[in-house]
Amino acid sequence: MKGNRLSWFGVNGALLAAAALAVAPLVWMVSVSLMAAGESSTYPPPLLPDAPSLDHYRALLERGGIARQFLNSLGLAVAVTIISTTLNTMAGYAFAKLHFRGRERLFSTMLAALVIPGQVAMLPLFLMLKGMGLVNTYAGAMVPGLAGIFGIFLVRQYARTIPNELIEAARMDGAGEFRTFFSIVLPVLKPVLVTLAVFSFLGSWNDFMWPLIVLNDGDLYTLPVALASLSREHVQDTELMMAGAVVTVLPVLLLFLALQRYYMQGLLMGSVKQ
Amino acid sequence: MNRQQLAAWAFIAPALAVIALFFVVPVVAALLLSLTDFDLYALADLRNLRFAGLDNYVHVLSMPLFWRAFGNTSYFVVIGVPLSIAVSLACAVLLQSKLARFKPFVRTALFAPVVTTLVAVALIWRYLFHVRYGWVNHLLSQVGILPIDWLGDPDWSMPTIILFAVWKNFGGNMIIFIAALQAIPEDLYEAARLDAAGPWAQFRHITLPSIAPTLLLVSILTIAGYFQLFAEPYVMTRGGPLQSTVSLLYLMYEEGFRWWNLGVASAVAFVLFIVIVVVTRVLLFATRAEGRS
């Protein structure tokens, strides 16, 4: 059994080391954010703050307007989540359960379009939104996330497992297509709705390139854009920047911890085509 | 059209309209844009816009910076993707081992970097890899390695970004690998053990062939994703030092939104798109050919 014990230590030691490496930068971020200004730029680098303080969080609130940017991120993410979950769910359900001409062809065309990187669309989209007066507005920042092929695909995969009898029974009772959808189908789709909502919330919160392009007024910045601009202006203020990073990362990390089952589920469904 | 057809279109129309208006139309427009000389002057007055044919593509392909960006991006993909996948697979196999303890806890810890905001964690890495005050150099100095200017030395900047990307992304593919590993029937391993096959032989002859389809899918998705490198160099190095971390998308961003050469930038975007399609297709065909032989 000696070899067995050795491999027990090997497996668990490696896993523990990997887990520590994965989490250490995040823990370190919190620690540095509580240090006095300049404390982290000493040698040897300190692990823990000498006298923990929330000064940098206060400074971010007063100078950087981080409360405003937090609300920008939150508001955009909530709005995008509600709209895209609604639109994707309706479309995904129709692709799975309602018959119409050209359904399969339309769906496979959409799947094929998944290979086109979103950035290809960004330049003309910017010009379009400029023409519509939506550059540097919340609406402009939301636009690319309002509906997505991947989300529709996820719902369709899940909705295909709903027994047809369930839907037929509702129709026999004289319910219209919309009533059937809201009272029969939606409750069954609840798990995939949560998955979809978590995905789009995280996607919107973490998005960087599009808000960077379309927003140019500090009052409208989302947290990642604000943080990037902060890091270009205050290169030396490590502690301040880490406080900003904590404010940006913590909400999504907590959301993930609370709903991780749904998130992982979505990841798996997305990786098994058909 | 019957009532169900009508209802179906009502369900699909809103999502389809959004995708058509904000994705399909811009993609087609991007193709057209790449055939014009759209620049700051055209932005001010559309009458300055000229059809340029393939001039932008010729220009892009003759830019030294484009080839630099192409080389940097390829470097990131060629080293980063296999490294990412190897780490994901190793962690998945370890987590699936019967010996592993505290599985849910370890899995969550390993996955945590995936959900974090890229810009924020890139800043953390910038300080961890700081030449004077960073923890990485401090720890290396304990074993006698002289300080390395990770993000300031053109030879080290891309490797540092690759390490960061692996740390940030490996958890996602790990979850997909875990699911694939769980689907392998246990009796295959039992039969192998009866034949006295060691862990490595089991991995090579049972695990790898069983997860081959997943491996291919994961590779394609990861390659496509890694070609879209942008925020890491934007936050960590601004493309430097000496342009060693300028990626294709970084080039597109600079050309498009800094210099307002939207025609040239669109051409860069399309070249990137073509590169992604070609590379993933070649991989697909190569594996199919391999499978047949």
Can you tell me about this structure?
The complex is a heterodimer of chains A (274) and B (293). Chain A is mostly helical and 274 residues long. Chain A has one domain: MetI-like fold (Orthogonal Bundle). Helices cover 74% and strands 0% of the residues of chain A. Chain A contains 13 helices and no strands. Chain A has helices at residues 2-33, 55-64, 66-97, 103-113, 119-131, 138-142, 149-159, 164-172, 177-188, 190-206, 209-214, 223-233, 238-271. The two termini of chain A are 45 Å apart. Chain B is an all-alpha fold. Chain B has one domain: MetI-like fold (Orthogonal Bundle). In chain B, 75% of the residues lie in helices and 0% in strands. Chain B is built from 14 helices and no strands. Chain B has helices spanning 3-33, 40-44, 55-61, 64-96, 103-115, 118-128, 135-142, 154-182, 186-194, 199-210, 212-226, 231-236, 248-258, 262-292. The longest helix of chain B is centred in the N-terminal third of the chain and has 33 residues, at 64-96. The radius of gyration of chain B is 24 Å and the shape is globular. The model of chain B has no long low-confidence stretch (mean pLDDT 93). Classes of the chains: A mainly alpha (274), B mainly alpha (293). At the A-B interface, α1, α3, α4, α5 and α9 of A face α1, α4, α5, α6 and α8 of B.
Layout of helices and strands:
The complex is a heterodimer of chains A (274) and B (293).
Chain A lengths: L1 H32 L21 H10 L1 H32 L5 H11 L5 H13 L6 H5 L6 H11 L4 H9 L4 H12 L1 H17 L2 H6 L8 H11 L4 H34 L3
Helix pairs in contact in A: 1-13, 2-13, 3-7, 3-10, 8-9, 10-13, 12-13
Chain B lengths: L2 H31 L6 H5 L10 H7 L2 H33 L6 H13 L2 H11 L6 H8 L11 H29 L3 H9 L4 H12 L1 H15 L4 H6 L11 H11 L3 H31 L1
